[in-house]
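Open question from group meeting: does this chain pack into something compact, or does most of it stay loose? Before anyone orders reagents, we agreed to write out a predicted structure and look at it together. Recording both the input and the output here so the notebook holds the full record.
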Amino acid sequence: MKGRRWAHQLHRWVGILSCLFMLVVSGTALALNHADLWRAWFLNPAKIQNFHLSQARVLTADPHRTGHLLAADQKNLFESRDQGQTWQELKLFVPAEKVSGIGFSPEKADQIWVALREVGVYFSEDGGEIWEEVSDLPFNPLSGEKIETLLVGAGPSLQLQTDLAWYTQSPQGVWKRQALTSGQGRQALDIHDLIWRLHTGRFAGNAGLILYDGIALSLIFLSFSGLWLARRPKRKPTHKPTAPSLEYPSHEERLVQKDESLT
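Structure tokens returned:
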């Protein structure tokens, strides 16, 4: 009995720890997929004001205005109009995470393109006040083909390098694709990206995000309900009345009963 009771307690605590682990995994998956809903709460204004060129992962100079620079770190897009002495954040309507390319039009001032590695390309005609998404890309970054480089040519025309191919857009808007040969870019996903996509559901694009959101919410519900059930007080066992025993009297008891009946 002691071994059975010990196994029951072990099973109970392992279940509780597993529920807590599922809460962490499900919560982080939702947080990764919907960073735009909570990221603004944790922004530190001091860090934005203290941006320095040494933090830039992408840097581009405006060919039409001296001293006008655009730069990006891992999570934000910045603008400077005094050759990098001071910076201010330039807002997109989506989180400016993992900027892989910034380009100015060589012909018209205030035309800017910004490529987000895992999301897409965005375009502004007024120096970054209003942004529009380039909706005619010949591939979908959300499905896994990531943007590595963006170039803007005359016309204007766009050139994009992904981890699988090189795309060129003519001034008329026609895209041409050239596959990368061996050694020019990655032909397969690295293990880190593969794990990240499996964890967040991005391997299947928007459908994967919706599917993983549903699974994560279901796991959170199961975890909370399991923890609640584990805390319920145990019911006290109820003792059923036992039926009277039907034992036959012994020979001596029968003799005594016979004598008592005769008297």
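Observations to bring back to the group:
The helical segments are 2-33, 35-38, 45-49, 191-200, 205-230, 251-262.
Confidence is low (pLDDT under 50) at residues 44-48, 183-188.
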